[in-house]
């Protein structure tokens, strides 16, 4: 049954809440005019490092209608991953909070599919696709346009009520919906994230040199970690949360309720010496469903050895 854009928009937001999403906002599927030049400049400065895939599908990244034919709306959603226990505080080698549990790509996509199935039952047939960090989409730009939050100086999306420890996801569909408004910026004169970054990866306000970022070095980079990272990685062996941890808005972060994002006992109990002796078998057991699998055993071992060598060279 055909319903009004207002009815459908309200229904979608109610469903998003039911399925555990923190926030839901709507934008018109159109060309991201204001993002085109900054993104092009970012690529020209080679801030993508060896992430050559960022250079592909330039037009698709800026226009969702090229991804989903006939699309009229972009539904942006956020899903909390802030943990109850911060493992990085335990004086151990560290991994980013988003990787404590199972791989969010599959978990959130499955939730989105179930949500869309319910929407189709109530609205009728919808032409759509669901995404979460899985296609050439400028996710933060769409979330910003939909009013979920503003892009902070560390280039993360920040929401007043919930901080920035959340995943972003999208449903691009052919429904005419009611657009939401962008929120205002609330970083002010704060530069805690800029000052805290040990590798000076935040090269300008809201501009990240990816090739200097610890997350890039420990996840995206496939070759040897450059020497300029020595002594600056602060025990991060997979990803980095420094610029989020120091953000004042994250004092409002609350623990997630997703069982699959919780760390397993092995991950919580290993100490530095155990990590240095990490075997392929143990790696496979700990990270069987984890996003850490992306580095493969050899990549994580490389990171651990780099951290160990850096500590030794400082004596």
From TrEMBL:
SUPFAM superfamilies listed in its UniProt record: alpha-helical ferredoxin (SSF46548)
Binding locations of [4Fe-4S] cluster 1: 187, 190, 193, 247
EC code(s) of this entry: 1.17.99.6
Binding sites annotated in the UniProt record for [4Fe-4S] cluster 2: 197, 213, 240, 243
Keyword terms: 4Fe-4S, Cobalamin, Cobalt, Cytoplasm, Iron, Iron-sulfur, Metal-binding, Oxidoreductase, Queuosine biosynthesis, tRNA processing
Quaternary structure (record): Monomer.
Name of this protein: Epoxyqueuosine reductase
């Amino acid at each position: 049954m055909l319903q009004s854009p207002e009815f459908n928009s309200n229904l979608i937001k109610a469903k998003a809440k039911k399925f555990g999403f923190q926030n839901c906002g709507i934008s018109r599927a159109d060309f991201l005019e204001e993002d085109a030049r900054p993104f092009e400049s970012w690529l020209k400065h080679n801030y993508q490092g060896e992430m050559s895939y960022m250079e592909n599908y330039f037009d698709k990244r800026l226009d969702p209608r090229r991804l989903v034919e006939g699309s009229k709306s972009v539904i942006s959603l956020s899903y909390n991953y802030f943990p109850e226990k911060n493992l990085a505080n335990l004086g151990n080698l560290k991994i980013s909070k988003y990787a404590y549990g199972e791989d969010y790509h599959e978990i959130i996509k499955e939730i989105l599919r179930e949500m869309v199935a319910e929407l189709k039952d109530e609205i009728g047939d919808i032409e759509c696709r669901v995404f979460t960090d899985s296609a050439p989409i400028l996710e933060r730009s769409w979330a910003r346009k939909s009013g979920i939050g503003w892009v902070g100086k560390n280039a993360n999306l920040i929401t007043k009520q919930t901080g920035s420890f959340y995943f972003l996801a999208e449903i691009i569909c052919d429904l005419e919906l009611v657009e939401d408004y962008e929120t205002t910026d609330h970083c002010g004169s704060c530069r805690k994230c800029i000052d805290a970054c040990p590798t000076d990866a935040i090269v300008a306000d809201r501009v990240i040199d990816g090739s200097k970022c610890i997350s890039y070095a420990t996840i995206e980079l496939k070759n040897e970690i450059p020497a300029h990272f020595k002594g600056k990685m602060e025990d991060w062996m997979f990803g980095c949360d420094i610029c989020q941890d120091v953000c004042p808005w994250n004092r409002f972060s609350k623990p997630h309720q997703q069982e699959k994002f919780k760390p397993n006992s092995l991950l919580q109990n290993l100490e530095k010496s155990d990590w240095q002796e990490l075997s392929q078998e143990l790696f496979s057991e700990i990270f069987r469903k984890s996003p850490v699998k992306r580095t493969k055993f050899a990549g994580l071992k490389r990171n651990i050895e780099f951290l160990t060598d850096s500590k030794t060279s400082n004596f």
